[in-house]
Every structure is written in structure tokens, then in C-alpha cells.
Design goal:
16 helices; disordered N terminus; two-stranded antiparallel ribbon; mainly alpha
Length: 340
């Protein structure tokens, strides 16, 4: 709500709803003389009196109705303002304001939290929940962020197993989340294991949510299961920097060309800012790796034994099959039918 019009819009709301204190706001000029009734209203009580006393078709009654209509016109503006960009900003930062008040209230706890590794993850998770809540119900937004977190923790756990230092998961609204490796894996096979670990754990998370739906029959969990299967399947596109691009690097770099061609086709058929960003980042990374693949270091990095290629292929295409089946099983053409 804009400060400049605050008082006028409050007046409109109170006049239409009658939501004010009649005793404190009562007008001392309640005379029913024509002069008093024709003057421009000063107090809200003047307007209230005219509402009850001027229900006829007199000029004064018409004047009151015009004034009421004028004030009524303020309310749609208020709704449009709150429903527009300003309202989005309010809804986005409302959770952050609550967290800030708690941190100010409990300063000692805030100092302890500053030392915790999960602080950045927690804050970016809260921001992402607020961002997704602009588009979805809050419960769905929370579940979506949790599913993304489960996916990212698959990468974190595998990076620890590989002995690769990495950052904690950092969430980016509408783009998911990322874990930054502080060094490259020792070879393409290790990178494939790291890449596949996210969809593996993420698929288990989606299956778990589907199980909750079967127990509770709550449509929210069915929707979360579907979106969980979809997000993990999307990440298996053979395109850098997605997980699928890291996995197919252990099979053949030629898969990257298939991935970039498919992504460009998606952008042409259904333009989307997220797809365009992925295409740009992936194109740059693909160009860098493609140039380095025939260097001595590149040949060593992408040298993978046949049995390991087979295992990676089984895991990669097996995940695609499982996730596709999960999406088909949790898809509902008419979601309103679940409300019965």
C-alpha cells in the first residue's frame, strides 16, 4: 500500500464497512438543517449519518451516493496494488521479516547460528519458500523446497564419499539449488557418480511423498510427488550443467551434443527464461570441455573402463525409466476430482 494514498484508502474502507469508533469520531455538527446537510463532509460520522438519513432520491442523497461510489472506486485500486508487484514483495519478504525479528529477539541464538554451516542454506531456503509461495500454496512451496534439498543432499553425501570439498546447498528461487565443488573430481566416472547421486536420492524423496499420499489421501502430497519425479527427470537431460550432463560424460561426450540440441528445440518450441539460462550456461561449459577433451589431461579424465560405462548407463537409463513411470502414475488430468 502506497503511503501517499494510505489515509484516503483507509477512509474508503471504513466508510464502506462502518469499521470505526462512532463515539470517538462522532461529529458535533449533527444538525439536520439543509445548510449542514449540503456542506462537504468533514467527519466520517457525517458520511455515516447521510447513509442512514439520505436513502431517498434527494440531491443530498445523490451527492452522498456519488461520494460513496467515489470511495468505493478506491478499493479495486487497493486490491490491484496488493495483487501486483508490491503485494508480491510483501509476501516474499514477510517470512524474512519474521526471521529477522526472531534473530533480534534472541541475539545469543543468532550469534550461535552465524557459526553454523547451515545458515546460508537455511536463509536461502526461506527465501525460496517465499518466492514459490507467490505462485503456489505455502504448504506446496515448503514441500517443493524440501524435495529440492533432498536432491541436493544426494550430491553432498556423494561428494564426501569422493573426498571432494564442496559448499553447502544454496537455493536460488525458480532455478532450484546448487552445490559448488571446490575442486573437480579425479575423473569422469567420479563426476558421474556425483551427478547421479542427486536424482537417486531425489527419486527416493518423491517416492516417500507418494507413500504419504497413499496413507493420507491428501492431494497436496500427490502433487508434490509428481513435481518431485518431474524435477529429477528434468535434471537427467544430457546437458551440462545438469546432472544428466555429468553422468553421460562417462559414457560419451557425444551425448552432450544430443542434450544441447534437445534443449535448443525446447527453447524454440516453448520459450522459457530458465531454459534459456541453462542453454547459455551449458553451451559455454560444453564448448570448454569439448575443446579440452583431446588434450592429454582430457583423455585421462574421460578414460573409463567398459564395465563402469555399463554401470553408469544402467543407472542413468534406469532412473529415466523409473521417474517416467512415477510421473505417469501420479499424473492427474483433473486435480479437482481429488477433492471429492
Amino acid at each position: 500500500m502506497l503511503p501517499g494514498s494510505f489515509e484516503k484508502r483507509v477512509e474508503a474502507s471504513l466508510v464502506l464497512c462502518g469499521g470505526y469508533n462512532r463515539i470517538m469520531d462522532n461529529s458535533p455538527f449533527s444538525s439536520s438543517s439543509p445548510e449542514d446537510r449540503a456542506r462537504k463532509p468533514i467527519f466520517r460520522s457525517d458520511l455515516e449519518e447521510r447513509r442512514t438519513d439520505e436513502a431517498d432520491d434527494s440531491p443530498q442523497g445523490s451527492s452522498w451516493r456519488e461520494r460513496q461510489d467515489e470511495l468505493s472506486g478506491e478499493l479495486p485500486g487497493r486490491a490491484s496494488t496488493e495483487g501486483g508487484a508490491w503485494g508480491w514483495i510483501q509476501r516474499l519478504f514477510a517470512p524474512l521479516a519474521a526471521v529477522g525479528l526472531l534473530l533480534v529477539k534472541f541475539k545469543s541464538l543468532a550469534l550461535l547460528a552465524l557459526k553454523a554451516k547451515f545458515l546460508g542454506t537455511a536463509l536461502t531456503m526461506v527465501i525460496s519458500v517465499g518466492a514459490y509461495a507467490l505462485l503456489f500454496p505455502v504448504g506446496f512451496a515448503v514441500g517443493l523446497v524440501v524435495l529440492i534439498w533432498v536432491h541436493e543432499m544426494g550430491h553432498v553425501l556423494q561428494l564426501r564419499r569422493e573426498g571432494i570439498p564442496a559448499s553447502a546447498p544454496m537455493f536460488i528461487p525458480f532455478l532450484g539449488a546448487l552445490v559448488t565443488m571446490k575442486q573437480m573430481p579425479k575423473n569422469a566416472l567420479a563426476e558421474a557418480r556425483v551427478g547421479l547421486a542427486g536424482p537417486v536420492l531425489g527419486s527416493l524423496g518423491a517416492l516417500g511423498v507418494w507413500g504419504i499420499y497413499e496413507l493420507t489421501r491428501e492431494p497436496l502430497f500427490l502433487g508434490l510427488a509428481y513435481i518431485g519425479f518431474f524435477l529429477n527427470l528434468f535434471n537427467l537431460l544430457p546437458m551440462l550443467p545438469l546432472d544428466g550432463g555429468r553422468a553421460v560424460g562417462a559414457l560419451s561426450p557425444a551425448f552432450w551434443l544430443v542434450g544441447i540440441a534437445g534443449l535448443v528445440a525446447l527453447v524454440v518450441v516453448s520459450p522459457n527464461p530458465i531454459l534459456i539460462i541453462i542453454a547459455l550456461l551449458g553451451g559455454l561449459e560444453l564448448w570448454r570441455r569439448w575443446r579440452a577433451r583431446n588434450t592429454p589431461e582430457g583423455r585421462v579424465y574421460y578414460k573409463v573402463e567398459s564395465k563402469h560405462r555399463l554401470l553408469v548407463a544402467l543407472a542413468y537409463f534406469g532412473l529415466i525409466a523409473v521417474l517416467s513411470a512415477g510421473m505417469a502414475a501420479t499424473f492427474v488430468a483433473d486435480p479437482t476430482s481429488l477433492q471429492a
